[in-house]
Design brief:
Blueprint (H helix, E strand, L loop, with lengths): L1 H12 L3 H40 L15 H14 L4 E5 L7 H16 L4 E5 L3 H7 L3 E5 L2 E6 L1 H11 L13 H8 L6
Length: 191
Amino acid sequence: SYDNAKENLMARFGLDDVQAQAICDMRLIALQGLNREKLEAEYQELEERIDYLLDRVGMTDAADRKTATYSKGMRQRLGIADVLMKDPQVIIMDEPTLGIDPEGMRELLNLIRELSVKDGSTVLISSHQLQQIQQVCDRVGIYVQGSLIACGTLAELEAQIQKNGTYLLEVDVEPCDDQILGMLSAQQGIL
């Protein structure tokens, strides 16, 4: 503490109270200056990281807008920037493209792939959008009623399906008329 430092100076160097206080005050002022410089440097570094991440997720132009005016895709990208501030090794996303327009979806999927390929992050995605999963994932796990029924690369999963032979694919088509049913029944392997 300040008083202990002052007493130590007085005892060690034979200083009077005023001299010891002056030295302690100078030391305190110097430490405050160093702390201020350190805080300013950390603040500058934080500002640079924020700018970098906003640019990385394509949000630089919207950085000064209120988040209430953001689209769903913009909020998703801002959420990713927030996660990246913490520099995680594993990123978990639940239905990341839900409610996003096609262009925003492409941008987000590219960003997700980049996080894995360029940054080396592990990205776990929970999604019902299998065509999107195929675009960004190198391994897939399929759960049915809470149980993992298949896991592997896309090629491995395809080989498992071909090895097992028959599989069931349900299609819901509107309108389901005789023309559609005729086209489907004409396809080889469709019952």
